[in-house]
Amino acid sequence: MPGRHPVTTVPSPPPRASSAAGDDSDIRAVLRIPEFRRMWIQLSLSSLGDWMGLLATTALVTQLQNSFSGQAYAIGSLLIVRLMPALILGPLAGALADRLDRRLTMVVTDVIRFGLFVSIPIIGTLEWLLIASFLVEAVTLVWAPAKDASVPHLVPRERLAAANTLSLIMTYGTAPLAAAIFTMLATISRTLGSSVSFFRDSSVDLALYFNAATFLGSAIVIWGLKDIGRAARPETGPEPGFLASITEGWRYVGQDRLVRGLVVGILGGFAGAGCVIALGRLYVGILGGGDSAYGVLFGAVFIGLAGGMAAGPKLLGDYSRTRLFGVCVTGAGITLVVVAIIPNLVIACILVMAVGAFAGVAWVTGYTLLQAEVSDELRGRTFALVQSLVRIDLLVVLAAAPALVGLIGTHGIHLWGDITVRADGVTVVLLGGGLLAVAVGLFAYRQMDERVGVAVWPELWNAMRGRKPTPTRPRHAGLFVAVEGAEGAGRSTQVELLRSWLAASGREVVVTSGSGGTTIGARLRELLFDPSTRLHARTEALLAAADRAEHVSRVIEPALARGAIVITDRYVDSWIAFQCASRSVDTAELAVLAQWATHALVPDLTVLLDLPAELGPQREPADGPAEEAGVELLAYRGRVRDGFLRLAQEEPTRYLTVDANRPREEIHAEIRAVVASRVERRAMPLGV
Ligand SMILES: Nc1ncnc2c1ncn2[C@@H]1O[C@H](COP(=O)(O)OP(=O)(O)OP(=O)(O)O)[C@@H](O)[C@H]1O
Ligand SMILES: Cc1cn([C@H]2C[C@H](O)[C@@H](COP(=O)(O)O)O2)c(=O)[nH]c1=O
Ligand 2 test: best mutation among 515, 533, 535, 547, most atoms within 8 Å of CB? Predict the structure, then answer.
């Protein structure tokens, strides 16, 4: 299938964000390039200006409106006008930036942004604020591709990944600084407002002037970068238009489970983030805070975001990236739900930091996975689709969230006595956003998880302690069925019935034995069953492991790779159940050994024929009379049975536990139905 990199027979570790993003030495090397360093400083200033602009303009619209609903609508309008240029002018601005001198483009657009931000507090109307915000975004659209195209002029190709990491850190890392400066300026304005009329008019004017100044500073820095000029020729083909990018990438995104999960997760994450951005100021107001508190809350989100992006991938080591993405989106959603209902601003600030951290890890992970998992010929279209969808997503959320808040208004549900529960629009919409993120995170997890059968939390805990993940196997083309049960449970009978039913389909069916199933295995089994050897329990376990390793690598794996249906009479579960019943061995330790020996090959289905301990021996064996079991033997058989049942309970989806004290055909019909559904799930036509 085109699209994803093919999964071969050897399990490859999940891509590590650090390797995709460039390691520490790369980053140091990039920063040693003087031109790039200056560019980096310029980008920091511009990003700082962007965040300050967002904070200051959002705060300003609330000051320009008196009613709660009016403020909500005004914030919604502001955020929409900030997103509109990307939808309308995106391709045009990209083409323009490729035709103009890039250094000049950046300098001119920075000066225009300076002028626009200075004009906002001077004109001081909501209408101009909206128009100026639209123009700032339109100009930024020309500036951004000029910047992106300039980086390869300054940085060697092999260091581009590290340069991009630095760009990402800078883009988000300046947000907390912007929030801190905004909070400081708002506090200064309020303090001086009583004595100096300039500060009385608007507490955010100073922030807007500061913001304007960052763009002027950026223009001065960029003017000094003489190496950046006009593009010699376009580095990539023209970007598909908005609609074209959707149709081109849609089919692929719809077909591939991993990419589908990623895209849905990213959209859900942005929807949650959009709720926080759109409602942050109103939320702070409900909890009794002002502009300063808004700055702190906003900063907390981005401290968490930057922390998550920078530290998350390192902290989580080799934890499965496909799992991590869904886990983090779900975690962000759960935390957002708590934020929505928490009545305390300080706790809310701490929690939004956690929301930011989850989102940061998810963003880096998702971005890296898209780069690593989507094949080169589809990557551009996939990214284009993701970017288009993210914009639509944000537009809808940013328009809908404040509008919904305005519609719902401010309410409280009186329960009893003094107890009233908040039911205002902000709480309800934030709660809904959080629940949506949880649903989307779980969906992404289910779509993307390639480690089915490996428990989530122990693996996460191990990764945080720096332990390697247990290896999982690639999907194979065949079907692997194990039949387990104590002596005389009817395994041979059911294996044969299953074999003849499956063989009628024309598929290759391989029947094998999980103990002594190879030439070497048979010799090992002889040793194991020879009472004169008097083996130590660990020696016994290692010999049994060698028997299983030989069996899996010589018989089962090659058959599965050919696409055969493999039925094994006994597998590692028998080994664990018998060894733990007869010797004092730790089941968990044996399971680790078994997993290593079998190359982590787990059956698609394990049929456990369950029979009460006293019934097995009563059944007439094919080669002799039924034996009379003593008390000790019965107790041992009871332990074996309990061992099997415990294993089955631990993995109910893999096991089919069958009451074996029934007629052969009845048991066979039950097994056949489940095998048929497993075959169907693997899309293996049986023709029977
Ligand atoms: N459902 C059943 N009801 C009654 N007897 C059965 C049933 N299934 C099998 N048997 C009989 O029980 C005996 C043991 O059956 P089978 O050899 O299939 O079991 P097994 O689990 O493979 O035994 P072992 O552990 O000895 O290899 C045979 O004589 C068989 O005919
Ligand atoms: C696989 C296995 C078996 N045993 C015991 C169970 C029976 O009593 C005998 C014969 O087993 P068979 O596979 O049904 O021929 O051996 C055991 O003790 N440990 C094992 O791993």
Answer: 515
